[in-house]
């Protein structure tokens, strides 16, 4: 394995609204959501409640994490490049974040590089905010307090693709398409996570989707770093 691949940890998170019952929110949070919802309303038929179910999951103050999937490269017995994945998921956000935090803290923060797609705008800050909301101290690799920019070992494949273009947003699925990486969107996409969680009660489906995103992310990273592998990436998952 190339040295630059050894200390990478790929990750992806799936988030939903903090509750399926908007009326269960306390009045202070309802007031705060109403202010935010005003920015999203496109017509008079949209209510604070309807927008909450559609949009709350992408805001750490009104959403929660239900799955964190991670992946790390390894050398197979045949000398091929493989990817080990694991998912931390469940209805208890504090429990899954505690498990994720313990795993990350076993890795050396001086060399560990996190990699996510749009991670700097979404995954990393969302994780930090929900860890703190749940009363969990940030692990060193996510704690940016007092760090200089070059000391922050966070990679972002969307930023890598921007090449300095601050206006450019490109989805993981589009990049996977142009680099001919198999899509993770076989039976669902990110817009359906809230419904699959609250209406279908199918957390396993969301977990599998999240893991597939990590596999796509790892393959995309190899393409973007011009790392050629002669055989398909070997994938091993453990729960």
From TrEMBL:
List, alphabetically, the CDD domains matched. Answer: DNA_polB_like1_exo
Every Predicted 3'-5' exonuclease PolB-like domain range: 62-226
Q: Does the keyword Hydrolase apply?
A: yes
GO MF, one term, reads: exonuclease activity
**What Pfam families does the record point to?**
DNA_pol_B_exo2
Q: Which UniProt keywords apply?
A: Exonuclease, Hydrolase, Nuclease
Supply the InterPro entries for this chain: 3'-5'_exonuclease_PolB-like, RNaseH-like_sf, RNaseH_sf
The name of this protein is: 3'-5' exonuclease
Task: Identify the taxonomic lineage of the organism of origin.
Answer: Bacteria, Pseudomonadati, Bacteroidota, Cytophagia, Cytophagales
């Amino acid at each position: 394995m190339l040295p630059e691949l050894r200390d990478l940890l790929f990750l992806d998170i799936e988030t939903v609204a903090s509750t399926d019952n908007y009326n269960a929110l306390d009045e202070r949070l309802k007031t705060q959501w109403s202010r935010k919802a005003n920015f999203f309303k496109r017509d008079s038929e949209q209510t604070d409640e309807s927008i909450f179910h559609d949009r709350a999951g992408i805001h750490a103050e009104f959403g929660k994490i239900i799955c964190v999937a991670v992946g790390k490269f390894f050398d197979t017995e045949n000398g091929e490049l493989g990817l080990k994945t694991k998912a931390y998921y469940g209805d208890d956000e504090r429990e899954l974040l505690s498990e994720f935090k313990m795993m990350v803290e076993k890795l050396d923060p001086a060399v560990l590089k996190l990699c996510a797609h749009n991670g700097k705008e979404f995954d990393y800050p969302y994780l930090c905010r929900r860890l703190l909301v749940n009363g969990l101290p940030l692990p060193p690799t996510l704690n940016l307090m007092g760090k200089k920019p070059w000391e922050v070992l966070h990679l972002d494949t969307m930023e890598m693709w921007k090449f300095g273009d601050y206006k450019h947003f490109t989805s993981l699925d589009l990049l996977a398409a142009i680099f001919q990486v198999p899509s993770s969107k076989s039976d669902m996409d990110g817009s359906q996570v809230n419904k699959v969680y609250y209406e279908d009660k199918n957390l396993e489906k969301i977990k599998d989707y999240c893991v597939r995103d990590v596999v796509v992310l790892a393959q995309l990273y190899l393409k973007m770093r011009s790392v050629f592998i002669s055989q398909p990436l070997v994938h091993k998952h453990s729960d």
